[in-house]
Amino acid sequence: ADNPLVLWEDCFSEAMKIGLNYYRDMRDISQEFLFKTLYGNPWIKMAFGGQALPPSKDSARRRNREKKRTRALTRKGGYVEACVRVMIAMSGADRIMNAKEFEAAEKIVQKDRRLRAVPPDTIKAMIKEQSRVLDLNPQTAISDLAMMVPSAKDQRQLLNIARKLASADGRPSEHEKGMLKAITHALELASRK
Known about the structure:
By secondary structure, the protein is an all-alpha fold. The protein is 78% helix and 0% strand. It has helices at 4-39, 42-47, 57-73, 79-91, 99-111, 113-116, 120-136, 138-143, 145-148, 152-166, 174-192. α4 (79-91) packs across α7 and α4 (79-91) runs parallel beside α10 (152-166). It is globular. The termini are far apart.
């Protein structure tokens, strides 16, 4: 136990385990995102005749309850939820999360102690929740970031995360530039108040 090499080996082993678990979770999340992006796309459904049956009254009520719940989540949360929302918005801006964006997101999480402290199951739930919020009303979801994170320091960190993800694959796409501009605008307006 006094041997520094044994301690180093234990530390390295634990770090490797955490890294591999994180990689597995992020891989699963990105594959699920890709699947839903491909097969949940209304154009794909229409092109291949996957038109759904007309919704029943129960499903319409359920959908309305879900929309109300999701609207309430738009301003709920703090720094971690806002980071997850920004990561989803930036990586989903062009509907593709490539390997470089994935690596950038992984580095961001590893370097940020607040993000690193969140268990993978909680992150998965947040990703689903924040994805719904962004799908329901992307403009409101982005403009409400400043309310979720009132600290100017944390707002700068959110903007930094968005910039890192936008430039992760070399050149940002037009969609990524647009999303980055929207996030920048929302956070700069908040800092002027």
